[in-house]
Amino acid sequence: MEDTRLAELTRIILALPEAQRKDMGRHASFLVRKKSFAYYLSDHHGDGIISVACKVLPGDNAALAAGDPARFYLPAYIGPRGWVALRLDVGEVDWDEVKELMTGSYLLLAPKRLAAQVKVRD
Length: 122
Prior knowledge:
Number of helices: 4
Number of strands: 6
Strand content: 25-35%
Order of helices and strands: HEEEEHEEHH
Structural class: alpha+beta
């Protein structure tokens, strides 16, 4: 049976134009036109954490991790390249926040024609 957090994350992400999910063992990668814009991580490298990693604007990853280290961290390998991870295993998950992060990451990596189809909340 699939983890409910992965199921909700998948529902949010697959609503984006041409978004796809690729399962990788306990993890999942979310792509648009072969570009990964999010990763569901479950016990990545034995860290015991369940999270979602995504691309953010330059500097936002460090700011988020420093501002709320109980929920955000810089994931191994990709953190220094502008990615941040949001823990899904501590407290109640704010799915609106997750949707905002996933949409932002998608918009950073999607082709302009697809990005233009996404309605962004003000």
